[in-house]
Amino acid sequence: MSGDGISGVDGITRHPTRVSSLVAVCAAVLAIALLGTTSAQRLALGVDVAGIAVLALGGAAWHRGHRVVGGLVALAGVGLSLASVGVVVVRAETVSQRVEIAPGLLGPLLVACGVVPVWKRFSRTFVSLGAAFVVLTICLSGLVRGAEMLPLLGAFAATVVAWDAGEQAINLGEQLGNEARTWPVEVGHSGATAVYGCVAVAAAVGFHDLDVTGVPLVGLFALFGAAVLLLVGLYN
């Protein structure tokens, strides 16, 4: 667990902001929920979410100065979240159900580790790795199970929101601290990202339904990826 994040000069707590942190984790969970269609996968995701909640409680206790209790609770949360992978491995009926969702269960946990933060120096790395694991699961769902286009694109859009919100939480926390009144900016920014993602998904689905040029699903994902890259470019 990282240090207390207090600036030595102005006394501002430089932790990721709460609203964007919550949006980031929820969006990552939503991405996996769109792909988890079996009872075993949903149970595993529930265990994952429970572990993340325990991690957040431990992190809050740690940052309030209760280092021993907070650290132990946070470790218990990480352990519970990691156990979700074991749940899907044991309870899933087929190998494909295990393979497609197992990496993605690490995604929300890593995003949470980035915004708690577990290790402040690597907050952005955790968020990026979390998004990468979710994208890996999206790809596996398409390749291994042949998931439908709409859940795949929706999961991609949710992953972009998760990454963007995580970055915003860290940036605002570093600049203004997590006690500043930043929630209007956070809600507006994440809302705009979500709307952009929905428009991109709708455009890709509409283009596919036209079936004028016979563009394959890979081409649609390339189109959607280009839209995501444009969003990243605008973000930077």
Automatic annotation (TrEMBL):
The chain crosses the membrane at residues 19-37, 43-62, 69-89, 101-119, 126-143, 214-235. This is Uncharacterized protein. InterPro entries: DUF7519. Keywords: Membrane, Transmembrane, Transmembrane helix. Signal peptide: none annotated. Coiled coil: none annotated. It comes from the Archaea. The keyword Transmembrane applies.
